[in-house]
Design brief:
The chain is an alpha+beta fold. The protein has a single domain, classed as 60s Ribosomal Protein L30, Chain: A (2-Layer Sandwich), CATH 3.30.1330.50. It is 29% helix and 31% strand.
Amino acid sequence: MKIRVGIGYDVHALVEGRPLILGGVEIPYERGLLGHSDADVLIHALMDALLGALAQGDIGAHFPDHDPRYAGISSLLLLEQVAQLIKGQGYCIGNIDTIIVAERPKLAPFILQMRSNLARALEIEIGCVSVKATTTEHLGFEGRSEGIGAQAIVGLEKDKA
């Protein structure tokens, strides 16, 4: 198969006393996401999409939340490991499209840095990485600012080398 597609989804609750990390960027906000690692929902959804495209399971299979090695770890470091797995399977990333679902905080000022972080970790051009943000118009857990969700879809191509 020359082209493979994967989809990913993640959600974490917002809590007091944690930094809010999205796309490897620390966002100024009064609450952060609860999780074993840095709880970066954007990168977690992206890793699930990439692993799914390779039929390699999900991030829990590769980076279990009961493993102390991953406690508080930057999800960007885990994303770099997934990038190496992709290369090892003989694929390269064609494109990435992601969306963060959060009522607050407003994320537009941080999107370019998120795209840059993802592109750097995956060793691809920033033009292959899309990050968008939306609200739910105050509906659901995201709309009540109880948590943040993210979705990702990716296209992988068989490396021509």
